[in-house]
Amino acid sequence: MRNKLIFGLAALGVVLGLAMAFVSGHVKKNPPPTFTPASNPYPKGIFANGIVESYQSNGANINLYPEVAGTVTRILVSEQQVVERGASLLTIEDSVQRATVEQQGAQLEAARALLAELKAQPRPENLAVAKSQALAAAATLKTAEDQRDKLKHSSELQAKSVSRSDLDNAENAVRVAAAGLEVAQKQLDLVRAGAWTYDIRNQESQCAALEKSVAASSALLSKFVIRAPVDGPVLAINAAVGSYVSTQGTYDGYSQGYLPVISMGSTQGYFQVRCYVDEILVQRLPAPPGIRATMFLRGTDKGIPLEFVRTQPYVSPKIQLSNQRTERVDVRVLPLIFRLRKPDGLSVYPGQLVDVYIAEK
Asked: Is 204 exposed, middle or buried (0-12, 13-18, 19+ CB in 10 A)?
């Protein structure tokens, strides 16, 4: 019985070993590809990575950053919306700056009112008072002179009728009245002259300084609204109402970096493709008039011909085409700019990565 059990187990082991050998030796067939990968259409074509952008005569997509920091209060446009130059796109909370402008505006109005007051002098009421004071001083002098003359005449008729002290007092009264008339006349002249020229000039300078302060504050207040610098579509809005934005843009929690608050493109019927040729391949590039290129959208094998536009004649460190300037490698690249019309039947968007093959015509 024991021997039968041993032989049975041995036979089972042989069967299992043969089964495992058969399974391990069986080669699984790979599933067919979902699409045919694009191949180099040129015998000696140079491969380059590319990225689709809106067509610009200079530069790339228009990335907008605020010039002031704050909380977003309103977003006035939507993505894909075509806007005109100068249109308001986004507003930032501006209550403090608006209050500053209003305060400085009130100070300017007060300064202007004081300047107008200085230029309007003399005030008719003040001039009338000064004239009355001069007339009163003249009348006081006339009274003192009459009193002195009466005492003198009485003394001439009867020497002992008037004392010497009374005559002296009458003379002093005339002198005091004459001095009072002189002061009143000078005060009248001062009122007639109006404000001092130096006071007017000083107030004019105060008004000019406040005008510049209001202009500077108003210019800063306008920075709390991001406006479209050109006619074109809104490609991306990377902020929401209530989010905080700074002059570096808006913080993206996914990429752990800063993004432009708004990206815009152009209204032209073209896309541009910016491709980066590795520095070791630069010497194989044809002369610019003879460059031709074909672009392949990733996931398709349909080639789209490109029109050469220009070369950016500056070799720079290679970037992984994600706008993250910290993603640097040791290779340096030469940017080439091509353009193409928006193709029918294919979905092409700014920011899309493409494969570009470059050759000579």
From this structure: middle
Span of 1-10, 77-86, 110-119 with lowest mean pLDDT: 1-10
What's the CATH superfamily of 46-59+266-360? Answer: Efflux pump adaptor protein, beta barrel domain (2.40.30.170)
Domain-by-domain residue ranges, the chain? 46-59+266-360, 64-92+225-264, 98-117+202-221, 122-194
DSSP state of 313: -
Distance CA 13, CA 25 (A): 18
Closest CA to 115 of 55, 37, 205, 39: 205
Q: Are strands 70-75 and 244-245 parallel, antiparallel or unpaired?
A: antiparallel
Q: What's residue 206's pLDDT?
A: 95
CA-based nearest residue to 330, from 285, 280, 283 = 280
Mean pLDDT throughout 274-279? 90
**C-alpha–C-alpha distance, residues 261 and 248, integer Å:** 9
Give start and end residues of each alpha helix (H) in the chain: 2-25, 95-120, 124-157, 164-193, 197-222
Task: For domain 122-194, give its CATH number from 3.40.50, 3.30.950, 1.20.1740, 1.10.287.
Answer: 1.10.287
pLDDT per position as a tens digit, 215-259: 999 999 999 999 999 888 898 999 999 999 999 999 887 777 889
The mean pLDDT of 75-81, rounded to a whole number, is: 92
Q: What is the largest CA-CA distance in the chain?
A: 187
DSSP labels for 63-80?
EE--SS-EEEEEE---TT
For 64-92+225-264, the fitting CATH number among 3.30.360.10, 2.30.130.10, 2.40.50.100, 3.40.930.10 is: 2.40.50.100
Rounded Cα distance between 144 and 150, Å, is 10
pTM: 0.65
